[in-house]
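ugh ok fine here u go
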Amino acid sequence: MFHIFQYQPLRLITQNSLSSMCLKLILSRPVAFAQIWKSWFSSHSLLGKKNIILMGPPGAGKTTTGRIVGQKLDCPVIDIDDDVLETTWNMSVSEKLRDVGYEEFIEEEGKALLKFSASGSVISLSGSNPMHAAGMQHIKRNGIVVYLDVPTTVIMSRLKSMDRIVGLSPGISLKDVLQFRKQFYKRWFDIRVLCGGDVEAEVVAEKVIDAVKRYQDSELETFISTRSSRSRKSTEEGSHKLYFSDVITQGLALDGGLFVPERGLPKFTAEEWQGLVEVTYVERAQAILERCIHPADIPASKLAEIVETAYGENFSCSKVAPVRHLAGNQFLLELFHGPTASFKDFALQLVPHLFAYCIPRSCNYLILVATSGDTGSAVLDGFSRLHDTDKQRIALVNFFPEDGVSSIQKSQMIGCQKENAWSVGVKSDFDFCQTAIKQIFTNSDFTGFLTVEYGTALAAANSINWARLLPQIVYHASAYLDLVHQGIISFGSPVDICIPTGNFGNMLAAFYAKMMGIPIRKCICASNENNVLTDFIRTGVYDLRGRKLISSSSPAVDILKSSNLERYLHLIANEDGQLVTQLFNQLENQGHFQLQKELLGKLQQDLVAGWCSDEDCLAAIHSVYSTTGYILDTHTAVAKVVADRLQDRTCPIIISSTAHYSKFAPAILRALRIAEINQNPLSQLHLLSSYSALPPIHWGLLETLKKTGNGDHHVCAADMSVLMSHIETLIQNHFM
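structure:
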């Protein structure tokens, strides 16, 4: 068997073994010696007995990178091709491939790997090692597998003159070989390192070391509440830290604040973003989410499985979130190709699976959701797609304003109910529903009673849950990369983004994408007549006094209290939790607050805002259809009107198309000047389909409405005790 033994560290320094030279260094230059010792200890504690295993396609730079990493860590370096395979076979790799052929070569290579062992080393695999399952299982047991993810076009340019690629043959192109191998690389890696085209090997080596450090230290990625004071943070440090798997289950902080990552979001370099230009939406999502979710919470292989499940067959468009040119410099980010026809599907096809993986098996969970329309059907659909074993321990109740959503939205929420997911109409507005859920979470007597009496904990799936925001960051980043891929812009050129905004989650996600390195210039908030956010961004005064919610044709943004604004203010206030607490307590108790001039200045550097009347919204739908044959939904039309007013046309603007127009058929038919509108939702959709417009009628929505019929749902009064009683009854019926 081929062995490389663990690197032997320096012996402990004692009076007997200490050389006179070392003693002189310690005595004469103690600071210098301390720095040398610290450097040595850091590198060797990083590896221990584990190996760093570099994996990737041929031409990824594994051998060169491995040598540099080994030098930096002062440990053995092993190249599988040169040091193991050719030594074992007593011939070159290319000769072996020529002698035995593709399939036998993989088998022989795997056998050699099975006889190999090492510890405390940097190992560079061959490009085809990951295709042998048993060999990879063997070597992975004592190592951290680092995937050097290099763009396919870069690999192809590097391998132009190389003829010993395993699997390459007449009729099979190099591109086909590289694409085929990706499935094996994805299966085995623990860490992905994105490598752009012109990145020096020295830089890649540093990335590898940093990535391994992150992998081994989950303590770096903790979460805090937006209402945590600095003194409380330092007191709590080391006592009870919260990680991703904690905040996805807890939802809302105990002090009423929202969770945010203590050290902020990861930054991607321009080269890393450019490395994602060529790949699919699913691959982009995996790469971005891996950097936002520590592998100690969800391993990369499991995360990849979840992402593929979420964005696979459930979306009707293979591009998942395509970008379509509308007119001039305006582009639409189509976020309605999921099963329930709104942008909420991006989070809510993913989050239920993240949640099911993270929660402890010893407890049942009831998810509480408040919706102004689109979240309801999306969250019901998402949690109903869990595995049967997970449905037995995870249930969901969706509260929505009984008379504050469109007829089709209500039909969807009724039709999406399943054995573990129910809808409850509340005789009030969305703000009441959202506030009620927050109060229930902070009612320790009630939540404690549910835990003790029924073994059931409460959790949230609204955009107040941190995990809801991450998939939204992905599609904003992906939209920019699509424009680069289409040749509309080059990477680094700015774009503006305009989003119909109610609860501020979608806008916050766009701002987070900007912080992570996407060149977004202006984030434009578009409101309807419930324009409290527009007023706030323009004046710094958030004032609910005397305001009443106005029902509009764009109900998903009929919101006066924007929950995710709290996260944004916490960020620009330099994480001053005391200030955030003061502002939102004042809003709760007095109905208003005002930002200091300095904070308002910061806010206005990031955000601009405008609003649109219902009349202007419907006029925009008619105008766009008349000139392009494309039908906007009512929320997208709000954003279109505001974009027209506020953009300066010096760069492209991406308008978030947050829902399919089919969901708001009565308003769309009015906009198209149809005089008589049948009240039956299914009839309305059939009438719209006769227009043969773009995009076509949403397939999932049509199927749901066909199944809905006269489905039942609970309706309750706007009373906290009534809501809590409903919750207890549902727990009894499902879990007992």
